[in-house]
Write a structure and sequence with these properties.
This protein is an alpha/beta fold. The chain is built from twelve helices and 23 strands. The structure holds MU-OXO-diiron. MU-OXO-diiron binds at residues 78, 80, 82-83, 144-145, 163, 221-222.
């Protein structure tokens, strides 16, 4: 496991987490990486660190290039512990290193690590000379925490983008042109849906700032480095941040005795007749973080649950809790469900959709088992509003 020279005197010294499958609720079926970068110059500079469990791996890669005690600057682009977790061990080895971060970064690192380290606090637009190279900082609050920032190196046209443009994707390859692009882009989309989606306006601001830079490489803190397909990832971020949705519906449901499933199939028929791309998802068979990937670029979402014990089904509640936390709003919603002797699902589905800031265009409830007449009515009414 070696360090990789990205450009002359700039090295990837990150770590590879092959086995992580749960990243605060996000199913990371491809593992991930915690990327850190070492710049060899008059001021030896480390850009970001790694999760604490991976400190030894990080230090081992740095040590291939230089004695870690020689590090002068540590750029902390983001406080979250997958990037700052190894600060303690790195700073044990290089106690005189200065942490370069924004004011919210300094505050966040002090709250997480409780250490009396040396900080140099930067403002957005500030530049720092490393010798032959320099770094210009742009704060990008809420992409994805208040402390996020990115660093641009004009001499090499490199953007150290931290969470932005990342993917949870473990690989021995480091560059986009060495991997299967479809797989990497799907992971980038899933990453956006599960990490960045609520912050569309801050992401739009970041894209506007980045568009003014002359960039040849984007070095994120997760996954592969972008050097060949920059246009593709930037265009995708533009589509996602500006909610350029497809004519597409994600139909998401659970069912007890297949009544709600019968309704879901009729919802499918209605959208099919109207020419929509459809994702048909029984919550028993798909992880909620994968469903979010399909929701991201859908114009519509249809959610169905029967009433169960004065409630919706727990699987649907878990999905909607996750969805409403990540929602950027602005989609059209359809809700439906069967019930026995008291309809409780439609009011609850309504509450969740309102929290997600979705516009409910149609709802349907049917008692016990739907008959043909009721299903025909559902389909006709739904087709009339989509
Ligand atoms: Fe990869 Fe927001 O941390």
């Amino acid at each position: 496991m070696k360090a990789v020279e990205v450009k002359k005197d700039i090295y990837w010294v990150g770590t590879i987490d092959w086995n992580v499958r749960n990243f605060h609720g996000y199913l990371t079926q491809q593992g991930t990486t915690y990327n850190a970068y070492l710049i060899i110059d008059e001021k030896i500079t480390l850009v970001d660190t790694a999760k604490a469990d991976f400190s030894d791996e990080l230090i081992s890669r740095i040590s291939e290039i230089i004695d870690p005690s020689k590090i002068d600057y540590i750029i902390a682009n983001h406080v979250e512990m997958d990037h700052s977790g190894s600060l303690d061990k790195i700073l044990e080895l290089s106690p005189n290193a200065e942490i370069i971060t924004c004011a919210k970064g300094e505050k966040g690192i002090k709250r997480h690590h409780k250490k009396d380290w040396k900080f140099k606090v930067i403002n957005s637009g500030d530049s720092l000379s490393l010798g032959k190279h320099s770094l210009q900082f742009i704060t990008t609050p809420m992409v994805h925490w208040p402390d996020n920032m990115v660093a641009y190196m004009p001499e090499e046209k490199i953007l150290f983008s931290n969470d932005s443009f990342g993917q949870h994707y473990a690989s021995t390859e480091r560059f986009d042109d060495e991997c299967e692009l479809d797989i990497v882009m799907n992971e980038a989309k899933k990453y956006y849906a599960n990490i960045v989606m609520p912050y569309d306006k801050p992401t739009q601001n970041e894209l506007a700032a980045v568009s003014k830079l002359d960039i040849e490489m984007v070095l994120p803190s997760h996954g592969i480095i972008w050097r060949k397909h920059l246009d593709i990832i930037l265009a995708a971020y533009n589509d996602w941040a500006f909610s350029k949705n497809k004519k597409k519906v994600a139909i998401v449901y659970d069912t007890m005795w297949k009544s709600t499933e019968k309704m879901a199939k009729v919802v499918y028929n209605a959208f099919e007749n109207k020419g929509f791309q459809i994702k048909f998802i029984n919550l028993q068979h798909r992880h909620i973080s994968d469903i979010l990937t399909d929701v991201l670029d859908s114009s519509h979402i249809a959610v169905g649950s029967p009433t169960l014990n004065k409630n919706i089904m727990p699987s649907v509640a878990a999905f909607l809790t996750y969805l409403s936390g990540l929602s950027a709003g602005g989609k059209k919603a359809v809700i439906f469900g069967s019930y026995g002797w008291g309809d409780k699902s439609i009011p609850q589905l309504t509450k969740y959709m309102e929290e997600a800031k979705y516009d409910i265009i149609y709802s349907s409830k049917i008692q016990f088992i739907p008959d043909e007449e009721e299903l025909t009515q559902l389909q006709q009414e739904l087709e009339a509003v989509i």
